[in-house]
């Protein structure tokens, strides 16, 4: 038996749709005795089920449906770009994090190198749009708060399953927002792996989101069609009235409106635009970068040709001027012989320049002019003219990204370089001196700095 809906407040049991003496009522459709739901209703936690707290006349199916429609359009690109970011890290080489995801493993494919700004666009959309949608998510949660905090949480086993799905949806989106924002602001503040938690948290949210769409989209469409958008947005504050009391979201004793529905949507939209303005500069870069007041972890390393963001300094990586001095050698493996080159030997090879971006998972990016030796020329020198992959190892002794495996297309691209210079100047120590990898459309952390070894693999 399913009891009638409605936000539960301090009213008696009778107002909830059943009486205290209905011992003979048959069980619900899942076989649960009705007295179970009645007992749950009588043990209300503090703060739950108090409808008098939710008296705004703006709440109702229409406002909730409008906010839901915005999220329906905005969240899928965030989800897709997040999964594509994982794919760009090369899970087929075991270097994406988490490396083992079981049946949640994405189909393996070679991440493209063209256009060169592909990963920059992907992460700019993922981080930027994710931040822009935060006010919409919070407004949506505000609009459904009476239903989220109603008591009892369910009046049947079927409704209990729906509420559990809703718990996963709300918990999932809040977890992704909080961990994502902290990751782009601070340097590893978590007591756990952000990448692992964010990936599995995303799948929890995705599953709940799909179920929620199946259940709620028909009602959302019906509600939006039932009222004229122009009329609803054209209603002034003085003319704002609650929607008909036929839904749990509508206040039974509404207060006087302090804002029209148009004003509420304008407030939410203004918050999204503000977050966008404070974020855009970190992805676009150039003269817009000072406007990125929501600063990411990428830090500027001074003025001049090397004055652009970095995530990890040479000091943090344990790289010193002595270790990169005259004794430094680049070791090339994979062919019949081991090849060693010093910096003078690399400078004596054919040099190539390319204007390429570096884009990090946190959303910041920068485009610079890099010069150095093509990776494919180094592969030929090593004796592997058509490598299937290449493993690049850094002098950095520890860290999750002190080495990277490159795909065949990433090695063979004419703009893939072992860079020795940037913007006409020698690389600074923080930017990877004496040599670093730079590859089109590659996630920033895989553009390995302080390279000491490259192994070209023919299989």
From TrEMBL:
Keywords: Membrane, Transmembrane, Transmembrane helix. Residues 238-255 have a biased composition (Basic and acidic residues). The keyword Ribonucleoprotein does not apply. InterPro entries: Mopterin_OxRdtase_euk, OxRdtase_Mopterin-bd_dom, OxRdtase_Mopterin-bd_sf. The keyword Cytoplasm does not apply. The chain crosses the membrane at residues 62-89, 124-143, 164-186, 192-215. One of its GO terms (molecular function) is oxidoreductase activity. Signal peptide: none annotated. Coiled coil: none annotated. Residues 1-29, 235-256 are annotated as: Disordered. Residues 326-458 form the Oxidoreductase molybdopterin-binding domain. It holds the Pfam family Oxidored_molyb. This is Oxidoreductase molybdopterin-binding domain-containing protein. It comes from Saccharopolyspora aridisoli.
């Amino acid at each position: 038996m399913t009891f009638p809906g409605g936000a539960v407040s301090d009213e008696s049991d009778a107002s909830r749709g059943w009486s205290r003496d209905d011992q003979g009522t048959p069980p619900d459709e899942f076989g649960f005795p009705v007295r179970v739901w009645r007992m749950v209703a009588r043990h209300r936690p503090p703060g739950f089920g108090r409808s008098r707290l939710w008296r705004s006349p703006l709440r109702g199916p229409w406002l909730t449906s409008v906010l839901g429609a915005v999220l329906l359009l905005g969240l899928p690109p965030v989800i897709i770009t997040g999964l594509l970011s994982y794919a760009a890290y090369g899970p087929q080489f075991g270097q994406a994090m988490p490396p083992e995801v079981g049946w949640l493993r994405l189909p393996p494919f070679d991440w493209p190198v063209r256009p060169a700004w592909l990963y920059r666009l992907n992460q700019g959309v993922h981080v930027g749009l994710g931040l822009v949608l935060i006010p919409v998510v919070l407004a949506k949660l505000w609009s459904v708060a009476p239903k989220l905090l109603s008591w009892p949480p369910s009046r049947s086993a079927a409704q209990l399953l729906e509420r559990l799905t809703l718990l996963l949806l709300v918990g999932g989106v809040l977890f992704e927002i909080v961990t994502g924002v902290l990751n782009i602001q601070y340097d590893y503040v978590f007591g756990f792996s952000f990448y692992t938690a964010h990936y599995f948290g995303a799948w929890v949210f995705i599953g709940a989101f799909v179920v929620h769409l199946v259940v709620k989209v028909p009602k959302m469409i019906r509600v939006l069609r039932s009222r004229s958008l122009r009329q609803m947005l054209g209603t002034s504050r003085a003319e704002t009235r609650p929607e008909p009391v036929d839904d749990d979201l509508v206040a039974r004793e509404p207060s006087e409106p302090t804002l029209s529905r148009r004003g509420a949507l304008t407030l939410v939209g203004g918050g999204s635009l503000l977050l966008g303005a404070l974020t855009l500069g970190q992805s676009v870069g150039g003269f817009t970068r000072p406007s990125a007041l929501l600063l990411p972890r990428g830090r500027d390393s001074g003025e001049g040709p090397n004055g652009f963001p970095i995530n990890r300094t040479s000091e943090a990586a344990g790289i010193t001027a002595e270790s990169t001095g005259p004794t430094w050698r680049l070791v090339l493996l994979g062919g019949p012989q081991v090849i060693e080159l010093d910096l003078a030997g690399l400078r004596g090879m054919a040099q190539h320049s390319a204007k390429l971006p570096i884009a990090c998972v946190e959303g910041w990016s920068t485009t610079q002019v890099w010069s150095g030796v093509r990776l494919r020329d180094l592969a030929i020198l090593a004796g592997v003219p058509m490598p299937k992959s290449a493993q690049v190892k850094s002098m950095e002794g520890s860290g999750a990204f002190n080495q990277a495996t490159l795909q065949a297309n990433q090695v063979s691209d004419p703009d893939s370089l072992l860079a020795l210079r940037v913007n006409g100047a020698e690389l600074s120590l923080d930017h990877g001196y004496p040599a670093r990898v730079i590859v089109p459309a590659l996630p920033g952390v895989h553009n390995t700095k302080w390279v000491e070894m490259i192994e070209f693999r023919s299989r």
